[in-house]
Amino acid sequence: MTNISIRVDEGVKKDVEALFEKLGLTISAATNVFYRQVIMSQGIPFPLAVTEPNSKMQARKRFGKAFKAAQEQSVINGTVDMTLDEINDIIAEVRRGKEAE
Predict the structure, then answer these.
(1) In this predicted model, what pLDDT tens digit does every residue of 67-81 receive, in sequence order?
(2) Distance separating alpha carbons of residues 18 and 27, to the nearest angstrom
(3) Around 7, how many Cα atoms within 13 Å sit in the side-chain half-sphere?
């Protein structure tokens, strides 16, 4: 056997110890289980993913979807050739709570 020393937030350690105690495990035993699972799976034994993109990414995706929908609607409405000033005027009206004419 060998010793491993890691640094972890004190609150995290307390929460983990409480959970492991309910499972009848020590931190050492749970760590050994994790390491064995890493070896068996030849990687982290659970998916690592960004489940919620940061707010900039979310905003970009929403803008992209809205822009595409606006493009499609502009073809239907026959307003494909609107100028940037015309578009900005409509945006300003909507922001003021007025319906664009």
Answers:
(1) 888 778 778 877 778
(2) 10
(3) 0
DSSP alpha helices (H): ranges in the chain? 10-22, 27-41, 55-77, 84-95
Distance, in Å, from the CA atom of 31 to the CA atom of 77, rounded to the nearest integer, reads: 62
Q: Are 3 and 14 in contact (CB under 8 A)?
A: no
- Does CATH place domain 1-49 in 1.10.1220? yes
pTM attached to this predicted model: 0.47
User: Given this model, what pLDDT does residue 53 score?
Assistant: 60
- Contact at 8 Å (CB) between 26 and 19? no
CB 46 within 8 A of CB 38: no
* Cβ neighbours of residue 37 closer than 8 Å, sequence gap 6 or more: 45
Residue spans of the domains in the chain: they are: 1-49, 55-95
